[in-house]
Structures are given as C-alpha cells and as structure tokens.
Amino acid sequence: MAQLLTEGSIGLAIALFLVAGCVIGYFGIRMTYLARELAVATGLGEAFMGAVFIGATTSLSGIIASATAAWQGQAGLAVSNSLGGIAAQTLFLVLADLLYRKANLEFAAASVENMMMSVQLMLLLCILLVAFNLPDVSLFSVHPASLVLVIAYLYTLKLLVDTHERPMWLPRMTPGTVREPKEQGSRGLHRDLSQLVLRFALCAAAVGIAGWVIASCGIVLVERTGLSAGIMGGVFIAVTTSLPELVVAVTAIRMGALTLAVGDIVGGNAFDTLFVAVSDFFYREGSIFLAIDTTERVWLGSAMLMNTVLLMGLMYRERRGIGNIGMESVLILLVYIGTVLFLGSQALAG
C-alpha cells in the first residue's frame, strides 16, 4: 500500500481515501444494529455498549491512523487526529440533534451514564493537558502520562459499570425522555450471542483496515500537498476516521436508541484520548508529548471546551432551544467553526 501510494498520483490517494471512508460508513450502520441487540442480550445497557464496544471498535480506524502516523515520525498528525477527532465527533452530536425532531437531544437522552462519560472524558483530557506541559520525562521513549491515561480510562470504565448497575442519581423522567429497552427477548434479540459477537467483530475488522488505508493516504497528502499536519490530522483524517461515530449516532437516533447515540459519541471520545498513549509507544523519536506544537494544544482546548458545553447541556436539559436543538448544540458548533478558522488562518500565515 505504501509503495503504491508513493508511486501513484495525488488523485489515487484521494480516491482510496474516499473509498475507505465509504467502507467505514457502511459497516458503521451494520454495527449499530448489532450493538443494540448486544446491549439488551448481555444486559450491559446502551450507554456502556456505546462507550466501550461501539466507541472502541468505531475508533479502530482512528487509532490505526494515529499509530501509523506516529511510526512514520508524524507526531503532529497522530495527536491532531486524536484531539481533532474528539472535537469532530462532539460536533456530530449537533447533527444528531438536528435530526431528532421531538425535542432537544440532550434533554431526551438524559441518563446518569452519559453524564458520567462526559466527566470521564474531561478527566482524560485534563491528564493530557498536564502531560503536554510537563518537562522531558520519559522511560524508553514513552511518557509516564501514557500509562496514567490507560489506567484512568480503565478505572473510569469500572465506575461507569457501577453507575449503570447501582445508580445513585437518576434523571427526572418527563414526557420526551426516552428510556432504553431492558427486557431480553425483544423483537430481533433472539439471535445466538456468539453469532452477534462474530458479526460485530467482522464489521470492526473492516473498519480497522479502512482506517489504515486512510492513514496511509493522509500521510501522502500531507507530504505532497504541503498541508499542515495539524490541519490534515485534526480536520480531514479526524473527520473521515470519525465517520463510524456519525453513522452510528444517526442510525441509533432513527432506531430510537438515544442513549446509544450519545454513548457512542462521548464514550468514543474517551477512547480516542488513548490514541495519544498508543502513538507515544509507536513514536520512536522520543516522547510524543514533547513533539506537539501550538496546533495540538488548540485542538485540546477546543475538545475540552466542547465537552464542557455538552456536559452542561446534559445536566441542564433544555427541552427546546432554537427550533428543537439546545443552546449547547449552537455553542458546540461555534467553537468548532472558530477552531478550524483559527487554525486555517494560522496555517496560511505560516
């Protein structure tokens, strides 16, 4: 693949980039239906299924993209893909909110699990913020923050499971609040569990391979077009490798699985922070935390701000804002547009 892209034209790289994006979108839809069946069949719930199984597997393309970029010495591309992907996926909730016409999505998808996942994401982003500002500390070219990030992710997953099984807070159930199905044996949930897992794994494998193709194409486009690695990683690659989250969210909303939709985005964002830790292991020129520049810091700040606004929306639960979307969706959109415009102007000025 690498040799084919190196010897081929920019047109070939763009074509493969688009084809891989379509593959991600197609298998993302199939994964959504399988995920809801698994959520009920296993009793784990939509929020946990969206956060872990969907969030992790739909992020395969992104994590492969970041690891590939880091292995080839593209630190900015690897980290920007992670943080830009978090910002892009949070933006996808705005699109999902527009599609859900009954009420503001953050109002209807109220659950303590979704709020817990937002707090989890903020914790992981804060760890990255601290790590980006620490002096040169590494062991075998790996920053200690990478290990801390993984441990924090696993521990907060345990808290998420506890929150689902023994919630200490419950949202006020009002007209418009959508509950997730609890009973096993609902229509379409009678399939053998092993078959569901196998089909889910096959879809995840297809998404992962497509992510590797996208990463390879993105690196070639950076080298040949002269585009900033921060812009290419944070916008083009991040958005394309995040297509599964968009497809899953839209499909879940059309199915009425609102908790799954929000859990997929927010839980996937938490998993995306691990891209930086994985990239740190693959980056052989030292700690990747010390190789980032202003662009990656801007993406981090943008992701933190967007997630804070989202958490505020989940807690405040505005029923209707502008049309059917809440003010948090408008603010998230403005933050993302402002970030892209700022980074674009910086790239042009440089």
Automatic annotation (TrEMBL):
It is a multi-pass membrane protein. It comes from the Bacteria. One of its GO terms (cellular component) is plasma membrane. It comes from Seongchinamella unica. InterPro entries: K/Na/Ca-exchanger (IPR004481), NaCa_Exmemb (IPR004837), NCX_ion-bd_dom_sf (IPR044880). GO terms for biological process: intracellular calcium ion homeostasis. It is found in: Membrane. GO terms for molecular function: calcium channel activity; calcium, potassium:sodium antiporter activity. Residues 13-155, 201-343 form the Sodium/calcium exchanger membrane region domain. Keywords: Membrane, Transmembrane, Transmembrane helix. Its main location: membrane. It holds the Pfam family Na_Ca_ex. This is Sodium:calcium antiporter. The chain crosses the membrane at residues 12-35, 47-71, 77-100, 112-134, 140-161, 196-221, 227-250, 257-278, 298-317, 329-349.
